[in-house]
Amino acid sequence: MASTMAIEGKHKQVYESFHGAGKFPDGCKAAKGWFDQLRDACKRVGSWKEGEEEGAVMDDVLKKTENLGGVLTKDGDVLKKTKDGDELKKTKDLGGVLTKDLGGVLTTSTLGQGLLGLRKWEKHSVDDGFTQERVAELLDQGPCIGRLWVCPWYFHFDAAKNNWVYRGCGRDEGDRAESKRLYGNHQNGSHVVVCFQYRLCGEQMHVLVLDNHGKDGPERWIDFEELDALFTLKVDCLCGTPDHYHDAGTSLVT
After folding, report:
1. Which parts of 1-100 fold into alpha helices (H)?
2. Structural domain boundaries enclosing 224
3. Tens digit of pLDDT for each residue in 13-49?
C-alpha cells in the first residue's frame, strides 16, 4: 500500500539524516502482514471498497493509520496478545504497554518499539494550484503520496526498462468519464503512488514514483500534470532503541 511505503520512506529519510545512508534498521521496516491488518481495519469502519474498484480513499487510510498509532514494523510484529484482566501486554523482552484500538490491532505507547508513527499529514489538491514550483517545493520535503488517474497503458511504463514518461487520459472529469466508457474499470481509475524525485526537461517536469504492484515497485516517470493530489507526511520519531534517540539529539520532528 502506497501510504505504508511513504511513511516508511519518510522515517528512513529522517533516520538516515542522523545516522548516515544505509543505516535504517531492517527491523524498523513495515511488517510483512501490515497491509492486511490495515485493510481489515479500514473494512471494519466501512472505508474499504471491494469489487472492481477495490481500495479506499487515501484520506481515510491515513486517518486510520493515525488511529492505529502508525505502521507496524517487523520488530513490532513479534508482539503477542496476553490477557491480564482487561489489559493487553507486550512480551516481556520488549517491555512497554500495548493498547487496543477499536479494530483490535496492537499498538505500542513506547516510541521506537514496534511502530513507525505518523504525527501529521496534509493534503494538497490540484485545485490549490499545482505549478512546477509548488510541486517541487512539496517533493523537496521528502517522500510523499501522489494521486493520479491511470489508464491501461500506464502499466507499460518502467523507469528501469525505458525512459518513457506517462501521460494519461484523466486530467479532468470529462476525460475520466470517457476513459471509463472506453476501457471500463479494469486497470483504469484513480491510483496512489509514492513520489520521491523529480527532474526538469526544458519546460517539462517529470516526477519519479514508486508503485506498489511488486516488491520493488516498479518505478515510473510521470508528467507532473497527471497528479491531482499530493499528501505530505510528518513523523514524530525515528524508529530504533532509546539510544538511537539520544544519539540523534532532540530535533527529531520533520
Report:
1. 2-19, 34-44, 58-68
2. 121-232
3. 988 888 889 988 888 888 888 888 898 999 898 888 7
